[in-house]
Amino acid sequence: MCGIVGYFGKNKALPILLEGLERLEYRGYDSAGIVVYCGEKMKSLKSVGRVSSLKEKVIKEDLISGKVGIAHTRWATHGKPSEKNAHPHCDCKRKIWVCHNGIIENYKILKKWLIERGHKFRSETDTEVIPHLIEEYFQGNLENALVKALKKIEGTYAIVAISEKDPNKIVAAKNSSPLIIGIGDKEFIVASDASAILSYTKKVVYLNDKEVAVMNADGIKFLDLFKKSLSKKTHILNWDLSSAQKSGYPHFMLKEIFEQPESIANSLRGRLINKEGITKLGGLDNVRKKMANIKRILISSCGTAFYAGLVGEYLIEEKTGIPVEVDLASEFRYRKPIIDKHTAFLIVSQSGETADSLAALKEAKEKGALTLGIVNTVGSTISRETDAGIYNHAGPEISVASTKAFTSQLSIFILLTLFLARQRQMSLIEGKEIINSLKKIPAKVKQILKNISQIKRIAKKYKKFNNFFFMGRKYNYPVALEGALKLKEISYIHAEGYSAGEMKHGPIALIDKNFPSVFIVTENSVYEKVVSNMEEVKARGGPIIAITNIGNKKLDKIADDVIYVPKTIEILEPILNVVPLQLLAYYIGVMRGRDVDKPRNLAKSVTVE
Ligand code: G6P
Questions:
Q1: Bridge partner residues of 191 (DSSP)
Q2: CA 529 to CA 33: how far, in whole Å?
Q3: Which residue among 104, 189, 403, 425 sits deepest, i.e. has the most Cβ atoms within 10 Å of its Cβ?
């Protein structure tokens, strides 16, 4: 997804902007561009593909001297990936330059109006209307013209702009797309993502929707769209740069898989009160009473976070008796969701910026739901827009394919379930039992991670197959869905997740010796049923990989390969059972020569609907 970096200060802008773009690469993009104000002139360069090709071009040019500049990585939405469509975009006279994330919904009308007034457009993008609108309204002051332009715009945006006509300043604005301003010593770095800021400063200001920031040699000021000045708080980022780097692992994905014992422990840290069998969730303090009266929960999310929500549904219904529904966020707003004041609406999102999830949140808010979030990215839009919530504290997840965020989301669902259940009928004894089992989870994940050589061997054996089923029941049904998603995302192999019981209603027609199935068949309340489904696959010659518990030797005759995981209580199984599936997908992806951290066509944070 698109990334923005802007710099104003005492240092050369170019290396700072390029480093910022490199730190944003993980978000997924298809082209990049940069513009620097070099004493009386703007110099810009763009390139399709990786930031490294932009860097090669830049070295040949003399952009070096400027101390003000903006840069962008673009993930195409309006117009194909090309130099002409890459940001920054400019006005007719190439004096006003803009980088933009988001979508200008009324750009067609604005473009037509601007063309009628003589403006010449160079790209197919929605973004280009912004510099032309600024040009239209410019009367010597960049922020005033930007404010006027923003009043014409409908849609979402994070914008940074510079102008040769009002030089030595950078202006920024936001509406529904993230934008953070890092404050250094007489310098400012504006970015769509904290990772581009971290190596310069940890002191940041979060822009809110429809706010504008103006940075120059006198400092920083904030305005609303009525030009009223605003005072804003600074925050200190608690993520360090090393956590945003690979730490010696060949890929971020593997590093993040191996971080899970720690990230799960971080999600639980300080939140378990063993002797009372309850969880302490500071982010829910202000809604504690309302939570006790909730009669229904709607969960909405996308991708991996959606599968975490499905596990949440099983959990919350079983342990609290509260009816739960889970919806894909991209579908939620198009239904006619029934919401009243006793409905809690819960968004699960690693990034806290996913456009579909935000749109669902907005819909639920308008209908009067109590809104809650399970979010990893501190200060993200979803975390700020919800009434209350629980942070994952899983640390930054860089790899596009989500791993540690998922196990952290599952851990948070357990905490939330305990919170709700102990407000209702769950006994002290059961609360304590769950807490005890939960505390052992990080060590058990570590135990699974010791088994990589076996998983590598299995990956080698199965990497040639072009189709896979992943199957499980009950708590392990969403795990099967997530296992299939991981494999297809990073290896580009066709993989489908199914409820094992549903297989006989169609999918079984596909089974033959070339169509392996991965069964999640740990010893729980549905174990025997899943074993029967395995037998059905075996009878039709389908190869089988089984995930079961250490010590269970009964599957050796049915499955071709067995991966063993430690035993835990049924509700915690998904946290353990998904780990070998993540590793299997990772190694098959690597063995097939895929770019596992940045799979084709995918983006880490999908900020368009
Ligand atoms: C994208 C990512 C997925 C992620 C989904 C939801 O599709 O590639 O890994 O699960 O968005 O993202 P969120 O940040 O809302 O959890």
A1: 5, 180
A2: 56
A3: 403
Q: Residue 90 carries which DSSP code?
A: E
| Catalytic annotation, pick one of 2, 38, 90, 302 | 2
Stated pTM of the model? 0.77
Q: Which atom of ligand 1 is nearest to the CA of 354?
A: 15
Is the Cβ–Cβ distance between 294 and 321 less than 8 Å? no
88: cis peptide before it, omega within 30°? Answer: yes
Secondary structure of 5-31 in HEC code, one letter for each residue? EEEECCCCHHHHHHHHHHHHHHHCCCE
Count CB-CB contacts under 10 A for residue 491. Answer: 26
Domain locations along the chain: 2-237, 246-439, 448-596
Tokens of 468: 């896979």
Catalytic: which of 202, 474, 567, 604? 604
CB of 213 within 8 A of CB of 6?
no
- How much is the pLDDT for 270? 85
Q: Which long-range contacts (CB under 8 A, 24 or more apart) does 184-188 make?
A: 184/9, 186/9, 186/10, 186/217, 187/7, 187/8, 187/9, 187/10, 187/11, 188/6, 188/7, 188/8, 188/9, 188/215, 188/220
pLDDT at 335 (0 to 100): 85
Atom of ligand 1 nearest to the CA of 377: 14
Q: Is 90 a catalytic residue?
A: no
Q: What is the CATH number of domain 448-596?
A: 3.40.50.10490
Same fold, 2-237 and 448-596: no
Q: Residues with Cβ within 6 A of ligand 1?
A: 302-305, 349-351, 354, 357, 400, 402, 602, 604-606
Of all protein residues, whose CA lies closest to atom 15 belonging to ligand 1? 349
Active site residue 2: yes
CATH number of 2-237: 3.60.20.10
- Beta strands 517-520 and 467-472 are parallel
Phi/psi at 40 (nearest 5 deg)?
80, -10
Of all protein residues, the one whose alpha carbon is nearest to atom 4 of ligand 1 is: 303
Q: What is the pLDDT of residues 521-534, one digit of tens each?
A: 999 999 999 999 99
CA distance 574 to 78: 39
* Superfamily of domain 246-439 in the CATH hierarchy: Glucose-6-phosphate isomerase like protein; domain 1 (3.40.50.10490)
Q: What percent of the chain clears pLDDT 70, i.e. is strictly above it?
A: 97
Which class for 551: exposed (0-12), middle (13-18), buried (19 or more C-beta within 10 A)? Answer: exposed
